User: What shape does this take?
Amino acid sequence: MRTGVLMPFLLVASACIPPLGLLATPTLPAAIIIGAACILAGYLVSRAGRNDPVLFLIVQPCMALCWYVSPILTVALETVLVLGLLYSLGLLSGGENLALPVLFLMVIAAIAVLLSTLPHVFVPLSLFIPVAALTWLAILGLAYRTTAHTRGDAP
Amino acid sequence: MEATRYTHGIFVAALAMLLCAWFLDSIPALFLSVFLGGFLAFRAIAFLRVAAAAGATLTLSRVAKPEILRQGGTSSIGTTLQIGVPPGVKAVISDIPPSGAPVIQGQAITPELEPGDHTLTLRYGITCLSSGSITWRGADLVLSDPFYSITLPFRGGAFRHPVLHVNPMGRYQRREGLGIYGEKDLEKLTVMKGYGIRAFRDYITGDDPRSIDWKLSAKHGKLFVREYSGTSGKYPLLVVDLPDSAVPCPENLRDTVLGAALEAARDMSTGPQGCSLMIISGANLLAFLPNERSLQKIESALFEFHSPQRSVQCYRTLDPVVAEAIRTRIAGNAGLQSDFGKRLVEIYTRFIPEMRPLPFDIQCARALSRRNETALHVLTTATGDVSHLATLGLYARRMGIEASLGLPDVMASPDLMRTLRGAGYALVKVV
Assistant: This one.
């Protein structure tokens, strides 16, 4: 499949799956409306030009609906979306480039499993905020190290 | 590291999901928030790893022609870059020219490099507005993917070569006369041929064929030769007085004097006597190059002592001869014999026999007593104490040598010009 049509295809597929999974539920009309809106927004974005990260973002409300079908299905769809996005952007060309996405998706899958067992957001949210802050601090440190330790005795 | 618009969009979406999760107590919204935030973090870590790997592959070699040039001159630069750009990443490399050397021709920046191995050469020209030994500031590698961009600064020694030696530009005011020495045409034959023609005469066997005037010979049907006028000139000792590095001195003053000295030395070094150069800083003799023909040696000497420290200061040093003259004058004139005059005569009488000339006085006397030394030309910044200039002027006057002096335009105050004229300099010009 050409990289240019991969993300629009994944967007349509992801927008269609929640209404199919929610056929016998009261949320079906909402799922259809949200799915149609995502497809329309994706169509408008694709007409303006190739913009895969935006398509990836547009499809996220459908993923929220998909959670009510099955958290595992949501994780699976997000996995396909992430790999599709990275592939279409050319960020998934080598075998060594696969290690980090696989690790990331495994962590996300574990979080999804944990979250699916919880009835309320308070405890995971209170954990998420400090963990996110620490992660970004670590990334800033890594960025500084990369900048400062480039070859040629950079300052 | 900077985030792109996509990253900002995903971050805002993650934040919105987080707020939804909080207010609506929605687990799916929290999951999406965690997922989007985690995606940004994962991409940041992956991008930094790739950036570090790409930075390690960058090599740079730079060639500058010429490497020695005059201030304001242009140097052509060829910078060869090698880099391996990882998949999904784009790179732009900027060669950062030295400070005070803007790019005037071509571009010192690569186009956007796609993934793959690249070897490319940047060709551009810079004009050196500042003087001295100047080096490149390095190179910047800008890497970007759809989510992040980062600038890696390469400032190490390997990225700063080569060193450009920029000689300061100065204007040397020539002495009156035909050339740098103030030569004059004479209506008599001398060993040194002048520029003018004093007469024509018949050709005699043995005459230099180059002196045959072919037009006149064709007109009259026989050979005529030009008889050149003679020339008389002075071979000045060029003295460059550099300011004390311990005392603040504007860089442009130093460069003006050095530039003028270099221009004078360039002309003199090709002359029959070469260039006699004396580099001083106050009453400190730094270098003495008699009849030097190698411009390279002259330039190295001038740059070696570019910023000297004056170990000897001769502020208000009294010359024994001058002191004796003052003593004799006061002792012989009853009108000057006040209390102060008497005390001064007494002090001078006791101390003058013990006064010894400074090493600089002896050096001046030796330098000016050389054969053929018929003029003295001093180039100075005229900052701080000028006693040493008075000493030089005094010795020149004693030896009957014509002394002239050049100083930067901004320093040429009427008072200073008057002082220097009084110190024995017949001609005070600004450079």
